[in-house]
Design brief:
- The protein is an alpha/beta fold and 322 residues long.
- The chain has two domains: 4-90 and 153-228, 3-Layer(aba) Sandwich (Rossmann fold); 233-301, Alpha-Beta Plaits, CATH 3.30.70.
- 31% of the residues lie in helices and 29% in strands.
- The protein contains eleven helices and 14 strands.
- The chain has helices at 49-56, 78-82, 100-110, 115-128, 144-156, 174-189, 202-207, 225-229, 248-253, 280-287, 304-312; strands at 4-16, 22-34, 38-42, 64-69, 72-73, 85-88, 162-166, 193-197, 210-215, 218-223, 236-242, 259-265, 268-273, 294-301.
- A six-stranded mixed sheet has the order 6-7-8-3-9-10, sandwiched between helices.
- Helix 3 (100-110) runs parallel beside helix 5 and helix 4 runs antiparallel to helix 5.
Length: 322
């Protein structure tokens, strides 16, 4: 479809191990990314997320399925697809023996850009990402935040239609994260489609038009943040901090009036309630019959991490099982 920059159809990847055992890392996922949107692609560790991205960016071949970039087969025309793709990897893959400007120029030359155009683009992005004053310094002297900004600038040099960001703000302090997302928002407004993976749940919640959740090689859900939250049993969650937390408390809590679901997450007993005004007196009274002490109790609305717990049994940040 013309309004889709990326179309993924029944994509699969199977690895054959040394002992002949086969592992299905990606199990036939299908989805579309609309032109000009910010698309979140999220999942806990081991979900098949990185394997999928490596296939979408021509770094790894698929076992079967189809990927279309701007309506054309990525699998049949990988070199043409690369011209439409920008990739910002999680690890630092800059050439540390080159200056910032040289990193940008060499990238541009790789994509066949003329010298005049390459220098013009380098000037533009060095200024945009606040690196002009350090453009002639070797990147080995750059801080993590500066290197990350340069990686994004480099990925944009050939003006890709879709930019893949693999956990771009991991390890950065909040101020650098804010700067990077301000710049990414500007790029998106200028027409660049953003394909984002991240472990910071506030980022897709605030930035993404739609979000896909994957787990164990399968696509579990796709939709807006509001649509995904509507999938969980309740929008109201009571969190209890107890002096001692036992697994059998979960089963006992499920029997309480108004409790749709109970889980242990982040060291808390969390109760998904079926009404907006839970009976706190009853809940507090219930804890007095347990072999523990209630230290804190609070009420909150559901988040994307709650969606992860519901769909995968894990929170995205710590992958703690319920």
């Amino acid at each position: 479809m013309k309004n889709n920059i990326l179309e993924v159809k029944d994509l699969k990847k199977t690895f054959v191990m040394g002992n002949g055992r086969k592992i299905e890392a990606v199990k036939g996922i299908s989805f579309n990314v609309r032109r000009g949107e910010v698309f979140g692609f999220l999942g806990p560790n081991g979900a098949g997320k990185s394997t999928t991205i490596s296939m979408l960016t021509t770094q790894r071949t698929s076992t079967s399925g189809e990927v279309l970039i701007d309506g054309k087969s990525l699998i049949k025309n990988p070199s043409e697809a690369r011209r439409k793709i920008g990739v910002v990897a999680q690890h630092n893959n800059l050439d540390r023996g080159l200056t910032a400007r040289e990193n940008l120029i060499y990238h541009a030359k790789y994509f066949g850009m003329e010298t005049k155009e390459s220098n013009k683009k380098a000037d533009e992005y060095l200024e945009k990402f606040g690196l002009s004053d350090r453009q002639h310094d070797y990147v080995r002297s750059y801080s993590g935040g500066m290197a990350q900004r340069l990686k994004i600038a480099r990925a944009m040099m050939h003006t890709p239609d879709i930019l893949f960001l693999d956990e771009p703000t991991t390890g950065l302090d909040p101020s650098y994260r804010a700067i990077l997302w301000e710049q990414m928002t500007e790029l998106n407004k200028a027409g660049t489609t953003i394909f984002l993976t991240t472990h910071y749940m506030e980022e897709p919640e605030q930035l993404c038009d739609r979000i896909a959740i994957v787990n164990q090689g399968e696509l579990k859900a796709i939709g807006t943040s509001a649509e995904l939250k509507a999938m969980i049993p309740s929008n109201n969650i009571v969190s209890m901090k107890l002096s001692e937390l036992k697994q059998n408390y979960v089963e006992e809590a499920k029997k309480l009036p108004g409790v749709e679901k109970a889980v242990i997450q982040n060291g808390l007993l969390q109760l998904y309630m079926n009404n907006a005004q839970p009976d706190f007196n009853h809940l507090i009274g219930w804890t007095k019959g347990l072999d523990t002490t209630l230290q804190n109790i609070s009420l909150s609305t559901s988040t994307l991490d709650d969606v992860f717990i519901h769909l995968t049994g894990k929170g995205i940040m710590n992958n703690e099982s319920k």
